[in-house]
Design a protein that fits this description.
3-stranded antiparallel sheet, 7-stranded antiparallel sheet, 10 strands, alpha+beta
Length: 201
């Protein structure tokens, strides 16, 4: 798919690794007239909040690798990378859950419909975080807390967490639509599977 510029937008990709492959969590942020230095700050903020906090909750067999932020205003826009908090997961319990069985964090905006929501598939946990009905309440709270920290720390640097809508009713938007996130939650402890991850574990 050809690159489509997104006005005033940056994409933060948080990368994790596992013995059977890797996974990423992607977040969109918006700030008017941002600079390369602003983008660098965003990579540090997202890495220190989401990357480091999720690293503490995942299996020790897995690792947080880095956060890479892309200037989405142009195909040749600057890229910023941060790996200061990189390292192995903090949960030393045995029995890692397959990374295809993820906890689903839903991002809500002021707009209805699927294009007004975002999903983040959070994974890498051990069986100690699993109950007979799904992920335990403490792990759900930890994920929501990590998103809260990331959102507030980014906002303090002038960045607004958003959902980027690239399609509407199945049609590609000429200009992607950035929608500020109003609330977010893990609606259910049941696992969610992202199809592209199924072959990884």
């Amino acid at each position: 798919m050809a690159f489509i510029a997104v006005p005033n937008a940056a994409k933060a990709v948080v990368r994790f690794s596992a013995p059977q492959g890797f996974w990423t969590n992607t977040f969109w942020f918006q700030r008017e007239d941002f600079s390369a230095a602003n983008l660098e700050t965003l990579s540090v903020v997202v890495g220190a909040s989401w990357g480091a906090q999720i690293k503490a909750a995942i299996a020790s067999q897995h690792s947080y690798v880095e956060t890479v932020c892309y200037d989405m205003r142009a195909a040749d826009g600057p890229i910023a990378q941060d790996s200061d908090g990189a390292g192995t997961g903090g949960d030393t319990a045995t029995g890692a859950i397959p990374i295809s069985a993820a906890m689903v964090l839903t991002l809500y905006t002021g707009n209805r419909g699927r294009s007004g929501r975002g999903r983040v598939y959070v994974t890498g946990f051990t069986e100690s975080k699993w109950t007979t009905t799904g992920y335990e309440a403490a792990s759900i709270s930890a994920v929501e807390a990590a998103c809260t920290t990331m959102r507030l720390d980014a906002l303090a640097e002038g960045w607004t967490l958003c959902v980027c809508s690239r399609q509407i009713n199945g049609a590609v938007r000429a200009i992607p639509f950035m929608q500020p996130v109003s609330t977010f939650e893990v609606r259910s402890g049941r696992e969610g599977t992202q199809r592209r991850r199924v072959h990884r574990g």
